[in-house]
Amino acid sequence: MPNKHTEKALQESRRFGVKPVPVLRPLGWLARGWADLVHCPGPSLLHGLVLALAGAAIFMLARHRFWLLAGAFSGFLLVAPILATGLYAISRELERGRRATLATVLQVWKPRDGRLVGFGLLLALAGSGWVLTSAALITGFAGVPITKPLDFVRHVVLNEGSHLFEAWLALGAVLAAPVFASTLIAVPLLLDRQISVLGAVFTSWRAVMEYPAPVALWAALIMALTLVGMATLMLGLVVILPWLGHASWHAYRDLVDTSGMARID
Which of 26, 109, 111, 170 has a beta carbon 3.0–4.6 Å from 218's, enabling a disulfide? Predict the structure, then answer.
């Protein structure tokens, strides 16, 4: 039986309807996200630069420990939704016909309550858990030191006598899938409306369960574009990460019916 906190969160979630979206709607989210990026390039690209530099810092710190680097990069993606909060705020201001500036972003990082901070800590905990799990799995079962990307490819990915890579992917999916389902629209919803963290997570899960096909396409697009950004020595992430952040705001607006609910200004 659900406890009183869970029941309250379920009631909060039911206040928001989930709107139907066609399978290919994620392409429209990308188009509108790109329009926001072009309309407000300064703060958006600054976001992308900071996040790309963070990725580069992870690479520099763990470049000789690829057993750690593999998990660190994928763990970084788990906390990306909370790091994109400023981008959601920019898209919200543009949607309301207002001018978005760097002050718009900075204001978001001075929250009036602890909901976004608390959710961010939970995501950071999930990311850290995956980093440790990934490192333990690779170092424990690879059989040889994994210090370079070539070591990972040779002894983990292409090792015919082992199922380590399959196990690594499976464990990553077990963690990443529920985190993605929990964050699909939860962070922009927390930014935009007064709802508890658990209520926002329940709403996000409802969207995933009711419209799995467009959500799956959206997840695939996020992964593909992120890999493209990483393949360009992180330079592509300067543009791709804010693009995806703005697009994620439009995913929230398309999926969640907030009519009749007071917004947070």
Answer: 26
Domain positions in the chain are 23-254
Q: Is the dihedral of CA 124, 47, 88, 228 positive or negative?
A: negative
The H or E element spanning position 17 is strand 17-18
Look at residues 83, 20, 78 and name the one whose alpha carbon lies nearest to residue 215: 20
Neighbours of 152 (CB within 10 A): 20
For 30-74, how does the pLDDT look when each residue is reduced to its tens digit (9 = 90+)?
Answer: 999 999 999 999 999 999 999 888 888 877 877 677 767 767 777
CA atoms within 13 A on the CB side of 115: 20
Residue reference for tokens 């980093």:
131
Looking at residue 156, the DSSP 8-state letter turns out to be I
pTM: 0.88
d(CA 148, CA 126): 25
List the one residue out of 216, 194, 2, 179 whose CA is nearest residue 82. Answer: 179
